[in-house]
Amino acid sequence: MYSAFLIKYAEIAIKGKNRYLFEDALVSNIKYKLRNVDGEFLVRKEQGRVYVETTGEYDYEDTVDALKKVFGITGICPVILTEDEGFDKLCETVIKHVDSTYKDKNITFKVNARRARKNYPLNSMEINALVGEKVLEAFPEMKVDVHKPDIVINIEVRKQINIYSVEIPGAKGMPLGTAGKAMLLLSGGIDSPVAGYMVSKRGVTIEATYFHAPPYTSERAKQKVVDLAKKMARYTGKINLNVVNFTDIQLYIYEKCPHEQLTIIMRRYMMKIAEHFAKESGCLGLVTGESIGQVASQTMQSLVATNEVCELPVYRPLIAFDKQDIIEVADKIDTYETSILPFEDCCTIFVAKHPVTKPNLSYIKKSELKLTEKIDELVKEAIDTVEVIKVEPEEI
Amino acid sequence: MEAYLDNSATTKCLDSVAEKMVDLLTVNYGNPSAMHLKGVAAEFQIREAKKKIAKTLKAKDKEILFTSGGTESNNLAIIGTALANERKGKHIITTSIEHPSINNPMLFLKEKGFEIDHLEVDENGQISLEDLKNKVRKDTILVSIMHVNNEIGALEPIYEAAKIVKEINQQCVMHVDAIQSYGKFKIVPGKNNIDLLSVSGHKIHGPKGSGFLYIKDKTKINPIILGGGQQDGMRSGTENVPAYVGLSIAAEEAYNNFQEKIEKLYQLKKYFIEKVTEIEDVTVNGKKDRDCAPHIISVSVKDVRAEVLLHSLEESGIYVSAGSACSSNHPGISSTLKEIGLKKELLDSTVRFSMSSFTKKEELDYAVDKMKEIIPQLRKYTRR
């Protein structure tokens, strides 16, 4: 049983004077993520490393699962931490570790020693050679391959000796809370949760806005969006979800504007309203799940039209993704099953049979002039009647 | 104001039922199989419950088998009969407008090599006895016909059908899905050639998770749940005493002042149909007089999507369902409406109102008033 995990991170290591900020965020995010896992954990920084140490019993699977959801970690290495009790004892520990970790001994390996504590009697090359020899003696089926080994037995001589050979891939990215805040337009479809996840992965804190249109969309459709936010929150942390009643605006646009422009104009108002909440809560940008050409409202021409209403930058992490690639990520973060539940969302209810695919901004603006009489009042009402739901991460 | 008009989906549990159930959950909670006094007391409760229910059908106590509800009763009736009789034949007849708890066991049997024949229905949702006569064969082992259709309230001629079945093939088992009709019609299965009859508790103001299958004495049927041998081995598992006793109270209550309650329902139905069809382009599906169920009204509203109407009504505290509630979580077009040949553009524009003996005229007025208000609004914004 491993008594600790060595947490590897890539990008943080190349930061300069700010490095400690990223590391501290990572440590605190790891602590937060492990709070509901069975076991006692000590998370500490040491010489450019983060360790998660355990004392006594803990749930290994749950711990790894939790760590896999922390942004900023590239690798999770279950590690044996042992005091220096002489070289023979070290070899014994390595052999025991190899024996219990690899049932099939027909593998190639290499020993990779590093000596941070320079007063150790052997240097790294010597450790490599001598430990390698002992392993070969113990398991004659194993072979050395220094170029492309199946396993790398890492031995790091620090205050304690670290032995590890397994590295579980982490979520990568940057620690949450190190990059500012963004407002996600969350629809209930497949794409927007993935977009939120991807931006959050860069350390960005996420808030969300959802537009519902009762009676055209149901309470269940809204619940579905809350469920999606809960799933996202396992990665992104708590999410403030703004639920905006969009019915009156939608019907007003429907009444006054050419039908084939409905979706574009609707989306322009959605962006405006989302931006209002974004600014109000100090967000530095908007996030959408748009991808070029996926539907009529996501052609480059349409994106020009929806982009035009925003002052804040609009981040579109999926812009060059194919649907299948988006689905793969959705599957990985476990939002796909929820996204495909068949509830009508407000974008589809009045959709035209042939919506414009190459809207001309000046025509769109001209159509919007027909809304002058009431639209400001309706937008204000939608903003004033917003329902804010504080979404906590779904427990596994 | 609230108007709950979705009583074919489920009903409010009677206070007297709930009270008795609390007692059976917290005070007299014995296991009827236990040898001690608390067990004996529970067993007595079950015997009394069977007696009460048997009385409503003029049946014997031992002909009542408790289940977890309508779906289990239907599954047992179909699969249990098939298992017990497959050596006599593999031919089964049912109708084209059955509930999924009939359709899916039938599909299951079809995959196992049984031959399933369907009786078509007319524009009112009724089967043709002539058609039935032509389809029953010597190797037909089961005929399953619903008494009242859950979506449009069509009433099937079960006594006549059962008679025809038995005249042609005495051995064939006759099953009736009475889930929407029990408590609304007096049914005497024993004298009328019906061998099996399914009932659900929560449709008649009893608890969810309760139901029974009437199994006429000497009917050949196998259990589908095996275990400790409770209920004479026909349905293993510790008896859900509170649910079964609750169901029996509800059943007894359903047949108290029966004529009066049913008369009131028919009058309310007539009243509602008159009022609701005053709205332009609103039509009622199926039969409208005494030759249909007293509590179900299927209403088509041209150019309004059922789901949208449903959610608009819900904003005013009016609860109805679109198509059949059981299948409405996976929106697809209702099969019954298709089978009765409803116009394509109305399939997705049909809602069901269903009443109970607690339904008041004021609730119907309220619902119609709201519809008069909402429908023209919704029609303004249809998909162009």
Give the helix/strand layout.
The complex is a heterodimer of chains A (396) and B (384).
Chain A: E1 4-8, H1 19-33, E2 39-46, E3 49-58, H2 60-68, E4 75-82, H3 87-101, E5 108-115, H4 124-138, E6 143-144, E7 151-157, E8 161-164, E9 168-169, E10 181-185, H5 191-200, E11 205-212, H6 219-236, E12 239-245, H7 247-256, H8 262-280, E13 286-287, H9 300-307, E14 314-315, H10 323-332, H11 336-339, H12 361-369, H13 375-384, E15 387-391
Parallel strand pairs in A: 5-6, 5-7, 10-11, 10-13, 11-12, 13-14
Antiparallel strand pairs in A: 1-3, 1-4, 2-3, 4-8, 4-9, 7-8, 12-15
Helix pairs in contact in A: 3-4, 5-6, 7-8, 8-9
Chain B: E1 3-4, H1 15-26, H2 37-56, E2 64-67, H3 70-85, E3 91-95, H4 100-111, E4 115-119, H5 129-135, E5 140-146, H6 158-168, E6 173-177, E7 196-200, E8 211-215, H7 241-254, H8 258-276, E9 282-285, E10 296-301, H9 306-315, E11 318-319, E12 321-322, H10 335-339, H11 344-347, E13 350-354, H12 361-380
Parallel strand pairs in B: 1-11, 3-4, 3-5, 5-6, 6-7
Antiparallel strand pairs in B: 2-8, 7-8, 9-10, 10-13, 12-13
Task: From the structure above, extract its key features.
heterodimer; A: VC0802-like; Rossmann fold; 2 domains; nine-stranded mixed β-sheet; six-stranded mixed β-sheet; 38% helix; B: alpha/beta; Aspartate Aminotransferase, domain 1; Aspartate Aminotransferase, domain 2; seven-stranded mixed β-sheet; 12 helices; globular; cysteine desulfurase activity (chain B); PyrdxlP-dep_Trfase_small (chain B); cysteine desulfurase (chain B); PyrdxlP-dep_Trfase_major (chain B)
